[in-house]
Design a protein that fits this description.
Elements lengths: L1 H14 L16 H30 L3
Length: 64
């Protein structure tokens, strides 16, 4: 019985431990600037592609 009480007390104390600390924020790397530039270039390309499609549609609608 005594061993059971000790085991229960140890389990209760272990369960009341502090929460783990939050993970550290991601650190900036050398590649971040290049990745940002690449994403911007992809967005610009999407805009250019959309404008090209719009112009082609206008030409087709005009009978070209």
């Amino acid at each position: 019985m005594r061993h059971l009480a000790i085991a229960l007390a140890a389990a209760a104390l272990a369960a009341c431990g502090a929460a783990p600390p939050p993970p550290p924020p991601p650190q900036k790397t050398v590649i971040d600037a290049q990745l940002k530039a690449l994403e911007k270039a992809k967005a610009v390309q999407d805009t250019v592609d959309q404008a090209t499609q719009d112009r082609r549609k206008q030409v087709d609608d005009a009978g070209g």
